[in-house]
């Protein structure tokens, strides 16, 4: 049966076209989560299985629609709350890692709490994407919430430094699953035109978590202990489990069965029955060494240290071995290499990597610059981060509307071009900032930065086959994280080297000055112990170095504009356009292939 005819039979007399489309999306969402009660389902014959006319239960349409919308709201709330809680955790640890590490006499290694979380979060994304493709998505959400809660409980009771660092890795694994599943489920249940809007809701939830996490954690830490904050975060996973585990108290008189359309269920007829264990190991080995090397190099270990050299030297052979194995394996591949490196997906992924380098470079520089330039003004760096994140959230919400109306190409090119101009303005004005114009500039940069990720997500999902959509989305998040690691590594190293060069040129190269420079670069509060004229010279040198580092963001942003200009042009005007609509969808009832209207 052709898809339009089947959809017409599902809702023979809908009140509006919008209700009809929402109803279809909710039923697809229900199937993807598999949380209806199968014990109430009536048995079906082999001829009925896969028939699109069996999508709806055999109850009245009004009550069914009401229940499906209520369940959709519950699941959406669970995913948004999960994103909010994971952002609270990241914000709290970012603000309190020094105090936590000090209690274990590990202040020099305090950043390990952040690095381990980021490494596990990045490396686990492709594996979780493959797991979500093979298993029920509700099970992945439940397992992720349990891991996140377990990791926070272990952090709360840890009495040794290695244990709390390991616990942060468990938290990172759970946080990766919660964030990934939200994006996957938005892509599976929403049209491409609405995908950017729903993704912007996730950005809003995460930003609220980032804003609330630091201050809330500081209040609880001052009132009792940082362990209490970890315990509170563990308890915050209970609403996620409750919303996903317990279905609404209603019976389904009929059976909710999916079609065998390619945009509803994964394609399991590839002849590859076994999971690619070797590919999973190689996948971890591809991402783990370079991320560890980039995270530890320069700050914890010198770049010439044998550990850093060894980690970087094995990266290229590991990538080559992984690609060759994934191309030749007879098992289910972890990452569809031919698809990721194909002409349609490689271009948005390259643009995303360049965008993340530019975005994170600016986000790394601005708070540090404010902390040094406005030394003595309490929480200046926190104000800069808050203004940037809140503006980016607003930009994501506004930009999603433009994406829905004009498609992703035009908003992407325009915002990237404006970001390049802003990077140039910052590179010219950081040494002698206009105080009343600094925060508005930060806010405008954040406003522009919220739109490009939504645009690129729509492009990536549009050109990914439905059976590989979960893995492609996981790779999208890997590129985001890896771009952030590259940006912070390159920017921090460049900032340190350039600042040292400026300080030596302005102040001197004697041993006493060198010692003073190292103290300044390790602890900005050292500025309070030096004479005023020396402090002004240090601030000026740091400003010059920060201005030069802004050229990293400018260069990367210009390259992102050029890569965005050659992306395939997409139009999202059809209301029912879904990801992968250019692929053939099989209708099991008549064994014919049909192209969904685009």
TrEMBL record:
Molecular-function annotations in GO: basic amino acid transmembrane transporter activity
In this protein, which residues make up the domain named Major facilitator superfamily (MFS) profile? Answer: 75-571
User: InterPro entries from the entry?
Assistant: MFS, MFS_dom, MFS_trans_sf
What is the official name of this protein in its record?
Major facilitator superfamily (MFS) profile domain-containing protein
Query: GO cellular component annotations, sorted alphabetically?
Result: fungal-type vacuole membrane
PANTHER family listed in its UniProt record: MAJOR FACILITATOR SUPERFAMILY (PTHR23501), MAJOR FACILITATOR SUPERFAMILY (MFS) PROFILE DOMAIN-CONTAINING PROTEIN (PTHR23501:SF33)
Q: Which residues cross the membrane?
A: 71-88, 108-128, 140-159, 165-186, 225-246, 277-296, 308-327, 348-370, 382-403, 410-430, 436-463, 470-490
Cite the entry's keywords alphabetically.
Answer: Membrane, Transmembrane, Transmembrane helix
Q: One of this protein's Pfam families, by short name?
A: MFS_1
Per UniProt, subcellular location reads as: Membrane
Record carries keyword Membrane:
yes
How does the protein associate with the membrane? Multi-pass membrane protein
């Amino acid at each position: 049966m052709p898809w339009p005819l089947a959809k017409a039979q599902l809702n023979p007399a809908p009140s509006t076209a919008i209700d009809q489309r929402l109803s279809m999306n909710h039923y697809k969402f229900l199937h993807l989560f598999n949380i209806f009660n199968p014990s109430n389902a009536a048995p079906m014959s082999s001829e009925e299985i896969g028939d699109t006319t069996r999508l709806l239960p055999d109850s009245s349409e009004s009550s069914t629609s009401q229940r499906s919308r209520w369940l959709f709201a519950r699941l959406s709330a669970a995913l948004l709350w999960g994103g909010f809680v994971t952002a609270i955790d990241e914000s709290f640890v970012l603000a309190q890692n020094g105090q936590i590490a000090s209690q274990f006499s590990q202040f020099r290694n305090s950043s390990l709490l952040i690095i381990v979380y980021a490494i596990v979060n990045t490396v686990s994304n492709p594996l979780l994407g493959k797991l979500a493709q093979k298993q029920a998505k509700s099970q992945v959400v439940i397992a992720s919430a349990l891991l996140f809660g377990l990791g926070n409980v272990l952090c709360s009771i840890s009495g040794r430094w290695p244990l709390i660092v390991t616990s942060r890795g468990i938290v990172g694994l759970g946080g990766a699953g919660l964030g990934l599943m939200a994006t996957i489920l938005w892509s599976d249940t929403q049209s491409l035109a609405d995908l950017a809007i729903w993704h912007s809701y996730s950005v809003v939830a995460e930003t609220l978590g980032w804003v609330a996490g630091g201050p809330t954690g500081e209040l609880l830490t001052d009132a009792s202990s940082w362990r209490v904050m970890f315990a509170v975060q563990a308890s915050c996973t209970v609403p996620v489990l409750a919303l996903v585990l317990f279905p609404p108290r209603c019976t389904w008189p009929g059976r909710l069965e999916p079609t065998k359309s390619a945009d509803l269920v994964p394609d399991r007829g590839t002849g590859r029955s076994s999971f690619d264990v070797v590919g999973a190991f190689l996948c971890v080995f591809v991402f783990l060494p370079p991320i560890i090397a980039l995270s530890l190099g320069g700050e914890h270990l010198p770049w010439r240290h044998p550990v850093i050299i060894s980690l970087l030297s094995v990266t290229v052979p590991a990538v080559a071995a992984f690609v060759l194995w994934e191309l030749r394996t007879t098992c289910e591949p972890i990452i569809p290499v031919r698809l990721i490196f194909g002409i349609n997906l490689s271009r948005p992924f390259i643009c995303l990597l360049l965008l993340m380098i530019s975005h994170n470079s600016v986000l790394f520089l601005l708070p540090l610059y404010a902390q040094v330039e406005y030394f003595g003004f309490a929480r200046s760096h926190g104000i800069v981060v808050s203004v940037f994140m809140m503006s980016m959230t607003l930009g994501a919400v506004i930009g999603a509307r433009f994406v829905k109306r004009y498609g992703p190409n035009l908003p992407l090119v325009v915002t990237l071009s404006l970001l390049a101009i802003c990077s140039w303005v910052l590179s010219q004005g950081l040494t002698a900032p206009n105080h009343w114009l600094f925060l508005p500039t930060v806010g405008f940069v954040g406003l522009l930065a919220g739109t490009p990720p939504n645009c690129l997500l729509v492009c990536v999902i549009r050109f990914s086959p439905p059976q590989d959509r979960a893995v492609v989305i996981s790779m999208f998040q890997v590129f985001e994280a890896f771009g952030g690691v590259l940006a912070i590594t390159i920017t921090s190293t460049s900032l340190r080297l350039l600042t040292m060069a400026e300080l030596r040129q302005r102040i001197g190269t004697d041993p006493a000055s060198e010692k003073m420079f190292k103290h300044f670069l390790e602890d900005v509060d050292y500025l309070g112990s030096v004479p005023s004229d020396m402090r002004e010279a240090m601030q000026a040198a740091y400003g010059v170095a920060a201005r030069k580092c802004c050229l990293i963001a400018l260069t990367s942003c210009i390259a992102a504009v050029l890569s965005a200009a050659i992306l395939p042009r997409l139009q999202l005007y059809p209301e029912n356009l879904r990801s992968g609509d250019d692929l053939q969808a099989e209708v099991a009832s008549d064994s014919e292939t049909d192209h969904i209207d685009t």
